[in-house]
Specification:
Helices cover about 15% and strands about 40% of the residues. Strands 9, 10, 11, 13, 14, 15, 16, 17, 19, 20 and 21 form an 11-stranded mixed sheet that branches. An 8-stranded mixed sheet has the order 2-3-4-1-5-8-7-6, with helices on one face. The chain is globular and about 60 Å long. The protein has a single domain, classed as 2,3-Dihydroxybiphenyl 1,2-Dioxygenase, domain 1, CATH 3.10.180.10. It starts with 5 loop residues before the first strand and ends in a 5-residue tail after the last strand.
């Protein structure tokens, strides 16, 4: 059986779609579709949407969407957990299976979703360095404004059923471990970073990370910007707004992304990132102890509120 091949989108609920859309446009997304009850936002890439918000009285993080390559893979996943394959009525259509992981987070698996046309955007900038000048004769003049988010890269789920969730994502969805963070004495894993199991094909260092926590929720969702300058231009653009900056700009250790974290109007943590690691089946998983500086090679000090999680409703 083939497992999931890519992460597609993050799904939320919120009481005001207009307020959410205004933030996401400033963050660098573009409206795909808005109905009276749902907002679908896309990036510049070929995914129909990479962020979903459904209208609800209380805001919460709901879950994630993933893709599989073949309908047989979707059917095999459904059979493992006694779920049904259904037609998706969301943009792009196709078939999907709606699952719940061991912590209760929603996980949608899609096949056959129609791609959208990519949006026009400038080419990523070429950078000179100390050993070569590939940009000779070419001036750098990127335009000011919001970032141009291309796609979703990863998300981090939290919950108490950590070991059961890890088995679910490995055994049912075919994901593989990239790196682990363990407690200081090594007695238990605290965070595990998972990539899609694509054999020799390279893929993001992690499409999902699991964090051991008494709280069920989504710590954050991360979205890839066009390049380094695009991330910084988005940072400067958002600084001119009333939106809350959480942490950054910096560079992570595990995954290596350059990062910049913000809060949406409903408290969800979202990340701009670029220049992340790519791995394949030859990657040897790393193991690191939890320390104060495990999250960044360089960065400003982390905000005291960074660990606050957009908690998922326990009643659903």
């Amino acid at each position: 059986m083939g497992g999931v091949t890519a992460i597609s989108y993050a799904r939320y609920e919120a009481p005001d779609l207009e307020v959410m859309e205004k933030f996401l446009v400033a963050f660098g997304l573009v409206r795909c579709l808005r109905t009276p009850t749902a907002l679908y936002m896309r990036g510049t890439g070929a995914r129909q949407y990479i962020h979903v918000t459904e209208l609800a009285e209380q805001p919460r993080a709901v879950g994630l969407g993933f893709q599989v390559a073949e309908l047989a893979d979707l059917e095999a996943i459904a059979a493992q957990v006694d779920a049904s394959v259904e037609h998706s009525t969301e943009p792009g259509g196709g078939a999907r299976v709606v699952l719940r992981d061991p912590n209760g987070m929603r996980v949608d698996i899609h096949h056959g979703q129609q791609d959208a046309s990519e949006l026009p955007v400038r080419a990523p900038l070429v950078l000179n360095n100390s050993r070569s000048a590939p940009r000779s004769g070419v001036l750098q003049r990127p335009a000011k404004g919001p970032s141009h988010v291309a796609r979703m890269e990863h998300a981090v789920f939290t919950g108490p059923n950590f070991d059961q969730a890890l088995r679910f994502y490995q055994d049912v969805l075919g994901m593989r471990i990239s790196d682990r963070i363990h407690s200081g004495d090594g007695s238990e894993n605290l965070v595990v970073f998972l990539h899609c199991g694509l054999g020799q094909q390279f893929t993001d260092h992690h499409s999902l990370a699991l964090m051991r926590s008494p709280t069920v929720g989504m710590d954050h969702a991360a979205f890839v910007t066009l390049d380094w300058d695009d991330l910084m231009l988005g940072h400067e653009h958002l600084k001119q707004t009333d939106y809350r900056h959480e942490w950054g700009v910096g560079r992570h250790i595990l995954g290596s992304e350059v990062f910049d974290y913000w809060r949406d109007p409903f408290g969800n943590k979202v990340e701009h990132c670029t220049d992340g690691d790519m791995v394949n089946e030859d990657h040897e998983p790393g193991v690191a102890a939890i320390t104060d500086d495990i999250l960044a090679i360089w960065s400003p000090p982390m905000a005291d509120t960074f660990g606050e999680i957009s908690e998922r409703s326990r009643s659903c």
